[in-house]
Specification:
Strand content of chain A: 5-15%
CATH class of the largest domain in chain A: Mainly Alpha
Strand order of the largest sheet of chain A: 2-1-5-3-4
Number of strands of chain B: 22
Structural class of chain B: alpha/beta
CATH topology of the largest domain in chain A: Fumarate Reductase Iron-sulfur Protein, Chain B, domain 2
Shape of chain B: globular
Radius of gyration of chain B: 23 Å
Low-confidence stretches of chain B: none
Low-confidence stretches of chain A: none
Mean pLDDT of chain A: 92
Helix content of chain B: 25-40%
Number of helices of chain A: 10
Structural class of chain A: alpha+beta
Oligomer: heterodimer
Distance between the termini of chain A: 74 Å
Radius of gyration of chain A: 21 Å
Chain lengths: ~250, ~575
Amino acid sequence: MADNIQLDVARYSPERDDSPSFQSYTVPLRKDWVVLDALNYVKDKIDGSVTFRWSCRMGVCGSCGMMVNGKPKLTCATFLSSYAPGPVRVEPLRYFPVVRDLVVEMSDFMTKFRKVKPWLVRKQEKPISEGEYLQTPQQLEHYKQFSMCINCTLCYAACPVYGLDPFFVGPAAIAMAQRYNLDSRDQGAEERMDILAQHEGIWGCTFVGECTKACPKNVDPAGSIQQYKLTAAMHWFKNLLMPRASK
Amino acid sequence: MDVYSHDILLVGGGGAGLRAAIAAAELNPALKIAVVSKVYPMRSHTVSAEGGAAGVAKPGDTLDEHAYDTISGGDWLTDQDAVEAFVKEAPQELLRLEHWGCPWSREPDGHVAVRAFGGMKKMRTWFAADKTGFHMLHTLFQTSLKYTTITRYDEWFVTRLLVDAGRVQGVVAIELMSGRIAAIMAKAIILCTGGCGRVFPFTTNASIKTGDGMALAYRAGAPLKDMEFVQYHPTGLPFTGILITEAARAEGGYLLNKDGYRYLQDYNLGTPQPKPVLRSMELGPRDRLSQAFVKEAEKGRTLEGPYGDFVHLDLRHLGEKLIDLKIPFVRELCLKYENIDPVKELIPVRPVVHYMMGGVHTDINGATSLPGLFAAGEVACVSINGANRLGSNSLPELLVFGARAGTSAAAFASQKDGATLAALLQAQDEKRSLETLLGKTDGTERIATLREEMQKIMEKSVGIYRTGPSLEEAGSKLAELQDRFKRVAIDDHSQTFNTNLITALELSFMLEVAASMVECAKKRTESRGAHQRSDFPKRDDQNFLAHSMVMRKPDGTAEVQYLPVTITRWPPGERVYGQPAEQAAKG
């Protein structure tokens, strides 16, 4: 293995630049280094102004998503050596507004995430003194996969629909809605249906499945979207058949 | 300068902070609550906790047994009134999380399942596979979104507490996105910023764990408590420090030396059995296991790698099915970060810094010594952890004491007046000094160099074993680094998302916290739990059945005093694990 590898980092400062450009750095190519280690090497040893988010370095906090050679990746879980002999191109997550260098603006995602009511809805709360809501391992298995989302937003950067239509609520938020809809303890599916059905976004998804391919946690947001479409269609169909009370 | 104001301000949006915010919001819907966090709350380090959360839940277990395990596990440095409250409220808190949707692992009949854990005599650890902290944090964060009275300052970094008229009145914080410096005032402030593992080179802690809350409180005049007690987790991956959960051993994993021998049997931890035995061998407490590793290395019976000595964790006999069901994250981490499949291969592990038993001194309700300032979670020291925390006690701790702090802060906030002029003037001062640091162009010392030197001396001299001379050496090295920090080089002068500036401020917090650790360790001339003095190998209850309380003097030096431990029903005894414990129990 060569001793070094070239890292091309997208740089952009709103105070200084009209548009992003690339800056190249030479970093050691070590077998156990991930792309994030290379970025930290640059920040620590060469240029402290290179800007990116990171925290846990174990693939669970969801902070360090970036485009690596054009693909959305958690940089803490992406070995540098997979890109040898290089260069490795690191850019901010696609489709998001860029704040600076590799940092993107997250507030659109945060707003959408909240909108789907990602919490357990109960018509009536059972008192704590009466113990837990029973849930069998099979019932848990039903939604478990969708509860594994770390909110890294790689799926948004992979989603061509989100790229074209920024109003699309997006893969992770829909998966989160499904996570609660499928939870045997939850009673909020109707409310969430109203929210999701309001926007054509979900119908815009053409099941390209890029979100599922990009997901580092095997959440399968594309699966959740297809499930949801089916439920929503059934719901709509049922409403059509049922007699309506006069308003 | 922008000034915001709230009734209650949470500094830190991890498990403790979110639990406290929800507690206050539920108690009084009229309260204006805000959470300021340097990362989006779901990025907080609670997310990395793996194994589980202890709370008595099953027939055959009792609160007293959980209390006894916790107290003896903490080598009698725990405050027993706090432990009694903790074990009583832990099950309710874990149930509350269940009601909020936490996907706890289940028994076939639908009840919550529990697993064994190190140092616990009964199975009482609730778990969500091996991503317990992740699921708890996301449940809390998602639940917090329901409350419209909770405002968030995401990606704001707090630099100073504002104290005047004998009470804490607010903070100064930088909004990362814009570089804007603002004063956020509140009638009550709760610190929930977590620990400071990044003071050390090998740690399970995320990069954000830089002791911010400890340093903020310390500089504001609140004493820190028991700062010499640093927990090494016996099983981290060597280079990255990534945690391999204790659940791997609870499910039956073995620790092997270079000869494939279960070496813990040589260290008064019991005799090896094929199946895991509670409070024995691999299920001994973390301090004892980490110490055994050092002794084993001294005998030359560990393996050597590029990042120092290591031993092996063997899970192969557990089989693929059990590993995938109970500890799937262990397999995922090993595959992704070490290129090792634990179904077929041995996992290299070494002790890595994991948790701070010490922290900001609080009472049982989360109140610090400074009126208006509260603390909960790892940043705080109540103390239920004493000289060594038992695995799976920290997650319920952040719930129990997060809720308590939220409730106390709510009561406090409803009585107090607004901010004083002097506090706002302090905010102006802080803003000016931050602007000076940002504009500094004559620095010569690289942040990373200072940080690495600090980490190196901490590992060498304030690690698993310490001595008087090693601590003296660490003390003078840290003083040198403090001095060099005055000449720190700032590469980035931008207003927009300036992580270079934040890293410098974090380093300054870490240097402060590291020095307090050394001062406490120097004065405690005994060995207890995680504080092992090779020059004073015995526990000394005569002189040290007491908490270290370290105060920062105006000149920046530290002064250590002692506060007696609260004993209610369990007089100090000997800590025994393995067969001796069974014999002792039989009487």
